[in-house]
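DM between two lab members

TW: hey, do you still have the Tat (Twin-arginine translocation) pathway signal sequence entry open?
JB: yeah, one sec
JB: this one, 177 aa:
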Amino acid sequence: MNDKKYTKRNQSNSNSDMVNLVNNLDQKTDLKYNRRAFLKTAAGASVALGVATLPLSVRTLVGAFEDDSDHVEIVKLSELPKGSSVKFNYPTEEDSALLVHTKSGELKAYNNACTHLMCPVFYEEKEEVLLCPCHKGYFDLNNGQPIAGPPQRELPLIEVEVINGVVYAVDRKYRHG
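TW: and the structure you got?
JB:
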């Protein structure tokens, strides 16, 4: 490479691409967008995000200690003799359910929509089973599993608690996934 051409190429008012590339750099802009500035911006954004979500975090922490149980009163146990049942709605008013006080004194509760075609399920006291009369589907009273007929899945289980002589529905469990 000859020296004359090399010198001309590095002069500031040259038309050479290499000189224009170097001259494109503005020292003020370069200082403004360096790594330190980026870290300051990232730290500032993190603090701002933390402050912005602080009310939600506090509410979540306070809510963790609240009693958010979903107790729904069904019936007084004294009003439900052994071998009888009562209908109720749980967890919403649209979800019909059945509480059975078995002959042995246990309490069993299930959503009473048949898992085959959603027909209502009834308690058969004589055989101690749950019956779907639409297609003669039978469910085991002890676990809600289908034992005969077209239903293939068990009834959703409703957990109950007895508090001061009153039966409450407290949770619903789907066991078949």
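TW: got it. The chain has two domains: 15-62, 72-173. The mean pLDDT is 84.
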